[in-house]
Design a protein that fits this description.
about 130 residues; Hypothetical Protein Ychn, Chain: A; five-stranded parallel sheet; globular; single chain; about 20% strand; alpha/beta
């Protein structure tokens, strides 16, 4: 069976409408269907890997978001199912996120290591 790597770069896509990141949701779904998958967070999506996020109180004008996204919990659930989650360390640094703020189990990789990681998988999905 093919091995899949989901590269999530575009952060918070559809998270207000669905409360889930499409790439993370799809990756979790194909794992549940028996696929071998992993995740690489890069760009703005590296913020998903931070502990203690809280989007409660999020508002757009007069509209309150009643069910805010909890993407860190999605990642924890994925890792509990055995899905490896990697994050580009250089992107963390650019956004001022210390490695010590990451969820347990997240594996930082340097930008220089990304090509090697991609080569380990048969299919790469980019979100």
């Amino acid at each position: 069976m093919a091995r899949y790597l989901s590269v999530v770069e575009g952060a918070y896509r559809a998270t207000i409408e669905e409360q889930d990141d499409t790439g993370l949701w799809f990756t979790h779904a194909i794992k549940n269907a028996g696929a071998e998958v992993a995740v690489l967070l890069r760009g703005d999506s590296v913020s998903y890997a931070q502990r203690g996020q809280d989007a409660a109180g999020l508002r757009f004008g007069a509209h309150a978001v009643k069910v805010p996204p909890e993407l860190h919990k999605d990642l924890e659930a994925m890792m509990a199912k055995g899905i490896p989650v990697h994050v580009v360390a250089d992107d963390l640094t650019q956004r001022g996120i210390p490695k010590g703020a990451l969820l347990a189990g997240i594996t930082p990789v340097s930008r220089a290591q990304v090509a090697t990681l991609l080569a380990e998988y048969d299919r790469v999905l980019h979100w």
